[in-house]
């Protein structure tokens, strides 16, 4: 719901002509009717608090969920979520800076969200591995009995379609427990 609130207010912020270089004559007729010379405090709060609450919710949910721990991650989960909470609080308090025009409000909030996204992506990668793709092909592996492994390798060499469900069934017709 908070994204809907932020999105609805963003549609009003982008047509505002509260900047000294924004001219209402450059807008289409339908946008010129919606354009405001000064954005209201309520619109500021709807936009910023909507984004902040959404980001805060996306930080609280992972705190309540226990993830697998991976050794070698660049940044811990707790640190990444800490940044999310900090940025969410900044976004919620951003309307208190009443001197910001609509363009500055949108650009600051966009920059903060991009910061959180970049930090999360960087933090989820592993030390010693390239942050970007390094040209090597992905490799997949699985532990399976020799008989099934040979059948799988032969099917791959002959470029047949392999049904994993059939390989999972043992000689007696049972699917092994995970």
Describe this structure in words.
With 178 residues, the protein is mainly α. The protein is built from 7 helices and no strands. It has helices at residues 2-13, 29-34, 41-64, 77-93, 102-124, 146-157, 164-168. The longest helix has 24 residues, at 41-64. It is elongated. The two termini are 38 Å apart.
What is this structure, in a nutshell?
With 178 residues, the chain is mainly α. The protein has helices spanning 2-13, 29-34, 41-64, 77-93, 102-124, 146-157, 164-168.
Walk me through the topology.
Layout: H1 2-13, H2 29-34, H3 41-64, H4 77-93, H5 102-124, H6 146-157, H7 164-168
How would you sum up the global shape? elongated
Mean pLDDT comes to 80
How many β strands by DSSP?
0
Q: In angstroms, what separates the terminal alpha carbons?
A: 38 Å
User: What is the strand content?
Assistant: under 5%
What structural category arises from helix and sheet content?
mainly alpha
Radius of gyration: 26 Å
Percent in helix: 55-70%
Which runs of at least 5 residues are low in confidence (pLDDT < 50)?
Answer: none
SS field, number of helical segments: 7
Q: What letter string, H or E per element, gives the SSE order?
A: HHHHHHH
Main pleated-sheet profile:
none
Task: Name the descriptors.
mainly alpha; elongated; 178 residues; 7 helices
């Amino acid at each position: 719901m908070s994204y809907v609130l932020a999105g609805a207010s963003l549609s009003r912020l982008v047509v505002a002509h509260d900047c000294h270089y924004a001219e209402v004559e450059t807008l289409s007729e339908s946008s010129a009717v919606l354009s405001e010379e000064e954005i209201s405090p309520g619109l500021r709060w709807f936009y910023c608090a909507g984004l902040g609450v959404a980001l805060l919710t996306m930080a609280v949910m992972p705190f309540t969920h226990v993830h697998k721990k991976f050794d070698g991650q660049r940044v811990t989960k707790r640190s990444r979520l800490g940044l999310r909470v900090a940025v969410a609080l900044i976004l919620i308090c951003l309307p208190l800076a009443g001197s910001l025009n609509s363009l500055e409000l949108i650009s600051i909030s966009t920059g903060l969200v991009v910061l959180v996204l970049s930090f999360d992506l960087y933090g989820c990668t592993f030390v010693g591995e390239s942050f970007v793709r390094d040209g090597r092909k992905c490799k997949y592996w699985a532990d399976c009995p020799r008989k099934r492994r040979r059948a799988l390798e032969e099917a791959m060499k002959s470029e047949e379609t392999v049904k994993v469900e059939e390989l999972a069934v043992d000689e007696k017709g049972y699917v092994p427990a995970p």
